[in-house]
Amino acid sequence: MARNIGSRYTAHRVLGRGSAGTVWLGEGPDGPVAIKVLREDLAADADLVARFAHERHTLLGLEHPHIVGVRDLLLGDEAEGGDLALVMDLVRGPDLRSHLAACRRLPPREAVSIVAGVAGGLAVAHAAGIIHRDVKPENILLDTSGPEPVALLTDFGVAQLIEEPRRGTAGGVVGTPDYMAPEIIEGLPSRAPVDIYALATVLYELLAGFTPFGGGHSGAVLRRQVTEKAAELPGLPPALWELIQQCLAKSPASRLRASELASRLRELLPALDGLPALDLLDLEAADHRMVPEPAGAAAALPALPAEAEAEAGTPRGAVPLVRGAVPDEERVTHTRMRVPDAEELAGGAHGTARVARRPGQPRAGSARHSAALRRRRLAVTVAAAGALALVLLLVLLLALG
Ligand SMILES: Nc1ncnc2c1ncn2[C@@H]1O[C@H](COP(=O)(O)OP(=O)(O)OP(=O)(O)O)[C@@H](O)[C@H]1O
């Protein structure tokens, strides 16, 4: 049923729902629009409405072919009925999450082209001092009305406007764990590199079908974001992998700027022509997401070596893994541990990260992997014993003249 929003807009039907509200297909003075009506409790929050009013200029001013434009902002009285609503350009097509769910993995050229466009949008926003803070496939819409799909980033700054005050009171981190840069988890302010980290995570996910550090309890995901290294994706052109790695750097200063990322990705496009989506094993990705981290998992985390503990003195605060992070004495944190070694990263006794394997390659820590290790050890022992016997025989022959 149609519903009026403010004096200028009519909402016709629901396009989708998110955590902050409902998005409607609507009509305005200049034609069709998408109208995001924020939840009632948010609209009733006077501070929140004031923050939106304060950011009106910024929200309305951001224009780029890869950013969903905000055309109007309706605040309280203006929206008649107390709605808080964002009127946006209508994007005709699915969001990237649904597209990925349908394709499972994207061919490298498509993935890189989408991410290059979004990086271009971020470059303009960052130059204007605006940080998105919630880059993820749900916030990237695909306009499929033209000959080629066009990716558009939406929800600029909205997550932050809504969440900012709660962050202060709860003392926790806000965002989507799978895409959250280590410095956010470390309690540092979010600057432009957080968007680059999140976008590199999206690129990894488009290529692999899973995020580099996702799966299980969100606490475990946050821990991996800070301590683990993304598993390499077999079959990816090295230049592309290098770019992803650089943008997934734990240190924000080591990541590329959005404009550079956009141009480097565009340069790679011709070399990716015709490459199929990666042929990865299913890994444990799907099940991994479903299985909650065992309750005792935190206790099983590798402890700091005793000397390091003693050196730092007691009580010892969290180890800031990102330069400049202020250790937080209050929090029992995921940073209070050492970086796992290769075996752990590969999913051994403690590691929980997924590692991309070629078909036929056993998973580290699996029975097949252990059997292969045992066989290799036996072969080495037999070879060593043979070599020793040969040496003894030579010595004996020499001694006998
Ligand atoms: N400008 C738009 N044009 C067309 N459809 C849109 C537009 N914006 C959002 N939608 C649709 O509405 C759905 C809900 O969007 P919304 O931004 O509220 O939530 P979300 O980003 O999916 O999730 P969350 O807010 O929880 O992060 C989207 O998945 C998309 O299908």
From TrEMBL:
Going by the record, the broad EC class of this enzyme is transferase
**Domain Protein kinase: start-end pairs:** 9-269
Keyword set for this entry?
Answer: ATP-binding, Kinase, Membrane, Nucleotide-binding, Serine/threonine-protein kinase, Transferase, Transmembrane, Transmembrane helix
Keyword Metal-binding found:
no
**Region labeled Disordered — which residues?**
346-369
- The domain of life for this entry's organism is Bacteria
**Position of the signal peptide:** none
The Swiss-Prot or TrEMBL record annotates one GO molecular function as: protein serine/threonine kinase activity
Would the keyword Calcium turn up in this protein's UniProt record? no
* Membrane-crossing segments per the record: 378-400
Identification of the protein by name: non-specific serine/threonine protein kinase
Which organism is this entry from? Streptomyces aidingensis
Q: What is its EC number?
A: 2.7.11.1
